[in-house]
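Quick one, probably user error.
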């Protein structure tokens, strides 16, 4: 059974920081594991664990066991301009300055 959408106004600040850390890690090609999320969010591991458990239960994140360690990813991708693509693109490409578009 599909869960109803989560109202973003019901997610607390810590949850938003954790979600942002997960999305950023994934976008930059790094594995969003518990330890990586805690480091990226600069939060205590116990708080991160509690928040990840809550966000997974609410359907914001999905946990997969990849390489023996739990990895968390956003549960929905329909907000993205490229829903099937999690990885981003390099910001600095050879032959292109940061100021050109």
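Nope, works fine. Designed sequence:
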């Amino acid at each position: 059974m599909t869960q109803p959408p989560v109202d973003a106004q019901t997610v607390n600040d810590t949850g938003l920081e954790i979600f942002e850390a997960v999305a950023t890690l994934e976008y930059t090609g790094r594995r969003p594991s518990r330890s990586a999320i805690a480091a990226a969010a600069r939060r205590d591991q116990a708080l991160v664990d509690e928040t990840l458990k809550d966000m997974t239960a609410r359907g914001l994140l999905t946990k997969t066991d990849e390489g023996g360690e739990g990895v968390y990813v956003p549960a929905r991708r329909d907000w993205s301009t490229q829903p099937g693509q999690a990885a981003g693109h390099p910001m600095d490409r050879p032959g292109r300055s940061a100021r050109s578009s």
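The two ends are 44 Å apart (CA to CA).
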